[in-house]
Amino acid sequence: MSRSLVSEELSRVEERLARLQVTRETVEEVLAAPSSPVPGTDAAGGGSGGIAAALVKAEAELDVTVMSPEYQAVIGLFAASGVAMRCKEVCGHLGLGTEPQHVEGMRSKLKRLVERGILAEPSPGLFKVDGRKEGW
Prior knowledge:
By secondary structure, the chain is mainly alpha-helical. It has helices spanning about 5-30, 45-60, 65, 70-80, 85-95, 100-115, and strands at about 85, 120-125, 125-130.
């Protein structure tokens, strides 16, 4: 392998490691915060503790999708608000456009988070924090 290829690969690995370190620090801050239920959820499940656990699990599994900045923003929004939202509302809160292409892209992200047990879709098109799949 040439030096330039090794240098490029090393740069990519260092960048990923830095992102994982920031995520770990964020999760540790969330876990260190006083435990209180998020409005709109019951005290036994969901909430930011469930999200923090999901992020720790995603990091351990090297799930780059959930660890990306775009997903971090979505997860942070749901953790902070604790309310159920539709795709268009999420786009609005995150400062994205509310045109169909933005809404459909967000729907794809939210569905992926449902698959991972971070969010739930209690009714079609309505998403909220949920950790029941992971037993939180």
